[in-house]
Amino acid sequence: MRSQELELAKIREQLEQEQSRKDVQVHVWPEEQPAATTPGPVQTEAYLLCVPTTAGYVLLDRVGALRGIGQAIDVPRKEGRFTVTKVVRLPRNGRPCAYLQRA
Questions:
Q1: 47: which residues sit within 8 A by CB, 6+ positions away?
Q2: How much is the pTM?
């Protein structure tokens, strides 16, 4: 019984450490990055922003021109600037989703 209590205390401590982390890193492997395209007319479409917060991620609906990987973007009501690290199409509705990281 005592060993289980010690193990439980250790797991709780690890959980607290994980929850206290504020930095989120997103790694994009080269094969996941879209091929560079030549600039053309700006397309307006509905897309999502996946914004990191201290409590996890928040998805924000947006309409307009989606920024490319590596480009900076301002997020209303969030301090600081963010950089687009990855853009994927959602499987169910095909909308693009841009993953952000604090710049």
A1: 62, 63, 64, 66, 95, 96, 97, 98
A2: 0.56
